[in-house]
Specification:
mainly alpha
Length: about 140
């Protein structure tokens, strides 16, 4: 009898995780903990996704923040996990396609991306701060 009890306690020790994952398992072990964790993950993930989407038009890590938000949401929500996998496949396919192209196509894509970023920066500065970079450049050059 004592041998089976020892085996059971050893199996229980092996099943438990240590550190952060063990803490998460403890939180998920109750209904209130599961619901609270889903709410917290949902709010944090949604805030990251929305913040990242607001930053997408600007030069910087907008898409990286969106993907980070999806990764946070994917820890608790299956739909977010599927969406994140789709996004990874799409970005990987685009990157692989671009790598297979010759240099003129790569240069053209890079130039188009930089031109789009410049137009977005000009438009955002003109709308938000009232600064017209084209007009400022003309004044500077004349």
């Amino acid at each position: 009898m004592a041998v089976t009890d020892d085996r059971r306690s050893d199996a229980t020790k092996d099943a438990r995780r240590d550190g952060f994952m063990g803490w998460l398992d403890g939180v998920r072990s109750t209904r209130t903990g599961r619901l609270t964790l889903k709410i917290v993950v949902g709010v944090v993930g949604a805030a990251l996704v929305i913040g990242g989407l607001l930053l997408v038009p600007l030069p910087g890590p907008g898409w990286l923040i969106v993907f980070a938000g999806l990764a946070v949401l994917a820890t608790e929500f299956d739909w977010a996990h599927r969406l994140l996998q789709f996004a990874k496949r799409t970005v990987s396919a685009w990157t692989d396609w671009l790598k297979r192209q010759n240099w003129p196509v790569r240069i053209l894509v890079t130039a188009a991306t930089l031109a789009l970023a410049a137009v977005i920066v000009w438009f955002m500065l003109k709308l938000s701060l009232g600064i017209d970079l084209v007009q400022q450049a003309r004044l500077f050059l004349s």
